[in-house]
UniProtKB/TrEMBL annotation:
It catalyses: ATP + protein L-histidine = ADP + protein N-phospho-L-histidine. Residues 1-115 form the Histidine kinase domain. This is histidine kinase. Coiled coil: none annotated. CDD domains: REC. It comes from marine sediment metagenome. Residues 135-251 form the Response regulatory domain.
């Protein structure tokens, strides 16, 4: 955590900004896991987010490589994140990065919860993942995320149409606005942001339930989303159980 916060400080050193650190317990299903060393179950998620200079995709792809650094000479060896990555993996955890130049960076560290051996054993009711059969338009410009979330939602029973372009998503919706019961869209996309897409969809069909997903809370928050007519707000990374709950909250509200 100290290393991640130090990096966040350096990213905001010149212009200032906001450093946000959160810790929460979440349930990860098999659909949420991309690392075979991880098992479904209870994890703690440590998030360290900043509003600094951010990184482009080429930097993100190399961020955990030893000796790779985006810092000035004398401010880093490029080993810090490589060490963090190694430690997290050694505990069968994972670390994910969301970043955008000029907007900021968010690191999400997942570590499995280990129950104490002296803890009194008890039978806990497992909360079932909420399912549905509605028709969903899912929009994310990252092909991997779009395909993965489409499969995840289909396992929950939904009929899913996935698009990796906000323009294509708008065209598909305009062609058959009554074909969909819900739209889930990413916030940061080329051509049109998630908010801009939502506004155009609502011009076509004002009663359309929309959930917007974002990795950066400073861009949009739940209150701002409501002012645009967006009914649901979801912070990345996407976790199956939490998104399933949010979907039912939005669709069952009426």
């Amino acid at each position: 955590a100290i290393n991640l916060m130090t990096n966040a400080f350096h990213a905001m050193e010149d212009e200032g900004g906001v450093l946000e650190v959160t810790l929460k317990e979440i349930e990860l299903t098999a659909d949420d896991l991309t690392d075979p060393s991880m098992a479904p179950g209870t994890y703690v998620c440590l998030t360290v987010a900043d509003t600094g200079i951010g990184m482009d995709q080429s930097a993100i792809d190399r961020i955990f490589d030893p000796y790779f650094t985006t810092k000035e000479n004398g401010k880093g060896t490029g080993l810090g994140l490589a060490v963090v990555h190694g430690i997290v993996k050694s505990f069968n955890g994972d670390i994910k990065v969301y970043s955008e130049p000029g907007k900021g960076t968010a690191f999400h560290v997942y570590l499995p919860v280990i129950k104490s051996q002296v803890e009194t054993q008890r039978i806990e009711a497992v909360t079932p993942v909420l399912k549905g059969t509605e028709r969903v338009l899912f929009v994310d410009d990252e092909d991997t995320i779009a395909r993965m979330e489409k499969q995840m939602l289909e396992r929950l029973g939904y009929d899913v149409t996935a698009r990796t372009s906000s323009i294509e998503a708008l065209e598909a919706f305009r062609a058959s606005p009554d074909k969909f019961d819900l739209v889930i869209t990413d916030m940061t996309m080329p051509n049109m942001t998630g908010v801009q897409l939502a506004q155009k969809l609502l011009e076509i069909r004002p009663d359309m339930p929309i959930i917007i997903c974002t990795g950066f809370s400073e861009k949009i928050d739940p209150e701002k989303a409501k002012t645009f007519g967006i009914r649901g707000y979801f912070m990345k990374p996407i976790v199956t159980g939490e998104l399933a709950k949010k979907i039912r909250e939005v669709l069952d509200k009426d």
